[in-house]
Amino acid sequence: MKNNTKDINIKNDINIQKIEKITNNVKKIQKKSKKLIKNKNFLIKPQKNTQNKTTENLNKQHISTAREEYLRKQKKRKIFVISIRVLILVVFFALWQILADTGAINVFVFSSPLKIIVTIGDLFASGNLLYHIFITFYEAFLGFLIATVLGYLIAIILWWNDRLREILEPYIIILNSLPKVALGPIIIIWFGAGTKAIIVMAILIMIIITVISILNSFVTCDKNKILLMQSMGASKWQILTKLVMPNGRREFMSVLKINVGMTWVGTIMGEYLVSKAGLGYLIVYGSQVFKLDLVMTSILILCLLAGVMYGFVCLIEKWVNNR
Amino acid sequence: MTKENLDIKKTKEDILMQINDVGLIYQSKNGETEAVKNFKLKVKNGEFVSIVGPSGCGKTTMLSIMSGILPVTSGEVLLDGKNIKDTKKYIGYMFQRDELFEWRTVWQNIMLGLEIKKQVSQKQKDYANSLIEKYGLKDFVNKKPKELSGGMRQRVALIRTLVLEPQILLLDEPFSALDFQTRLSVCDDVASIIKNEHKTAILVTHDISEAISMADRVVVLTKRPATVKTEFDINLGNVTPLQKRENPEFSNLFNLIWKELDK
Prior knowledge:
The complex is a heterodimer of chains A (323) and B (263).
Chain A: H1 2-44, H2 53-61, H3 65-102, H4 107-110, H5 113-125, H6 128-160, H7 162-177, H8 184-191, H9 195-219, H10 223-231, H11 236-247, H12 249-273, H13 279-288, H14 292-322
Helix pairs in contact in A: 5-14, 6-9, 6-12, 6-13, 8-9, 9-12, 10-11, 12-13, 12-14, 13-14
Chain B: H1 2-13, E1 15-28, E2 31-44, E3 48-52, H2 59-66, E4 74-79, E5 82-83, E6 91-94, H3 106-116, H4 122-134, H5 150-162, E7 168-172, H6 180-196, E8 200-204, H7 208-214, E9 217-221, E10 228-233, H8 241-246, H9 248-262
Helix pairs in contact in B: 3-5, 5-6, 7-9
């Protein structure tokens, strides 16, 4: 009995030491980040408008302790969120590796992080990796670009001509509810078993929803604002470019965000149906020959690619919103 | 006798907008609606006219007709003796909300009309700048509308209208979106700006005190189909709307118009 409690005490001690270490580390990180943030502010300040200067100085003088407290809490929260995010990733891969090493999961079926790294190395060495990534990225990007631009143009045409819009409405609705994969075989016959068919597949998946969303943002434009433009003698083109298009910029950005996800769906689906290269091809091929390392590797790379592309769109959105 | 004749001649020449027996019939799926009938009104140059009427009587419809956006079924609207449809002159239109474009800065909003007319010249810019400075918006030209107060936004909207040097200003309850406190001061602002710039204005409102305090003449409309019922000349001196409200004559006028509306 006594021994047991001792053991527990010792264990607790160790735990406490660990916790102390961790908190120390966290404190260090906080200090560093504070310094960084201070430096950042220092850099940003001189660039700001001179007009704001007086008010800013006022704010600076009157910064209250409550405000400081609030800012500190916000910072703490941000650091906490980011560290937990990283932690989840680390734990996920560590757990996966440990389970694979201990034999709790079958490596042949589930693969493992180390094996994935090896696979990436092999693919990279043979020069195939970049090739497959490039093919898939090329298809996804081209599909994204064409679908967005074409969809936007069609939306403009339908906004311009409301009789045409009325005529085409039921067709658009039916096309929207049609599962585009059903068209797969036809696309292959029409466009050949290659990159072209995959890009068409991706475009088909995106274009209808793009047209509908953009058109919706156009037609919901405030009637009084249009009346205002008309009272100033604006032409239809001026109403479009100076009011309707910038007015729908938020919807346009959300369409971009949706499309940047959908384009990967379309591309990978296309590659499943017909392809000789690309990450979708690697996934299909890998599963057929039971090389799960290859499948997992491809999926992981896909995750990264899609994430990067999404991040890029978010940057554009920030830029648009700040204008 | 001759002097009287001269006076009559003068007033005749001075008429800027003339509405002759205008009628409007709406067509819709459910049938015809007669919105306006035998509408007659003359507005002198530099005059401020308020139009009041029971709700839903077609006040806003009348403004759309006067601006030439809505074509009439019968009668005609003349501006400076020419039919409103043929005149190339600008008619300033202010709405219930300021309708500023959120993605444009104050300056870009003010320049909107000139951009549309492709008239952005140095002279126009100077004029815009003088208005901006005169009406206290100098420090805000590079701000976005959402950073301004309701009163300021309405001032920006007014300047956006004024830079196009309109022959006549049509105001469609331009203060109805503001809270009462702001409303009184913006009302003062707008009235003094319009007086300063010697503009002719027609204000449509359901607020009787607003109509009396801003106008030289109040026109009372009937229920639908809208036509002119009575006109009241307002002579409360050359003071601001807020000061006019303090005039003892004010409440008399208010009661008169109130009864007229209620009949």
